[in-house]
Specification:
Distance between the termini: 27 Å
Order of helices and strands: HHHHHHHHHHHH
Shape: elongated
Strand content: under 5%
Radius of gyration: 19 Å
Number of strands: 0
Largest sheet: none
Structural class: mainly alpha
CATH topology of the largest domain: Tetracycline Repressor, domain 2
CATH class of the largest domain: Mainly Alpha
Amino acid sequence: MAEQLRAIRTRQTILTAAARIFEEYGYQAATISQILTAAGVTKGALYFHFQSKEDLAQGVLAEQDQLIIAPLRASKVQEVVDVVMLHAHRLQTDPMVRAGVRLSMDQSARNLDRSGPFLRWAEVGLSLLEQAQAQGELLPHISPSETADVIVGSFAGIQSMSQAVCEYRDLVKRVSALMRHVLPSAVVPSVLASLDLSEGRGAAVYAEASQARSPAGAQAAS
């Protein structure tokens, strides 16, 4: 058990160091040597967990949607909003998420498959929007798959713009505006009027999700 815990900690140390290096230098310029130095581990320890720089990058890409999950909501459109706003909040506060986003948006990253995060987010959006449609939350003409793609693609553009302009400082404001502009074309008015699209929504959802993950929160939920 002790060895297993040590291996988990070492893997996380390496991923955290890789995220820092990828965010600072980009995928193409980052080197294994830089990651080794940042992590403070041996080459053997790194290659025990990750076979290559690409494997490391895929680990960082996957990490951004593994840790915090938005709580379930009766309104699945609100759940879509919460997922998007939560990710925006984490982009502002979590270096691992920022590194994953930089990698996914890095068009100069040759030989790196960057499709994973986009496909995963579109899949999450599609599932929630199909549930919303089944509950009568969407307008009759709406295609959940098309709407999911529009939200994911628009969010990616908003992230990129916010990062370039001010290092994500205005991201939640931009994402709130995005939701206010996109959702009226897809959501029935009665549901739209009930949604919380405020700039503080992501931080509130993060606090709620974190509480649910804590031992005390999990015990209360049971």
